[in-house]
Prior knowledge:
By secondary structure, the chain is α+β, with helices and mostly antiparallel strands. Helix content is 20%, strand content 29%. The protein has helices at 8-20, 58-66, and strands spanning 35-41, 44-50, 55-57, 73-78, 81-86, 101-102. It has a four-stranded mixed beta sheet. The longest helix is centred in the N-terminal third of the chain and has 13 residues, at 8-20. It is globular, with a radius of gyration of 15 Å.
Amino acid sequence: MEKQGESKERQKLRSSLPKAALDEIPNPSSDAVSITGLVKERGRISGYQLSDHRVVSRSEGVALARSGKIRGVGISHNGETEYLKSIPDDTETNNLSSLPTVSDRADG
């Protein structure tokens, strides 16, 4: 989304700054899945629902993303805890924070 009157250099800088906050941006494979929902415990993300209907823990999600099996995410950390973040692209609807919370149970 281009802001009126904003220089190309400023646009590039504005879009690159959020990406700099990511530790890694893995290169997804052609068969990579996407994240369709978030599993939360006490308001914190503990796992991810994938487009192939699997539910994985936060650490499994990070490992899958790192190996190119999840598209559209980068890896960041808070202290010793690694987690996934959407790769910034000026589209709000594909941000992880916009995804629904889902059950961590396969039957739920």
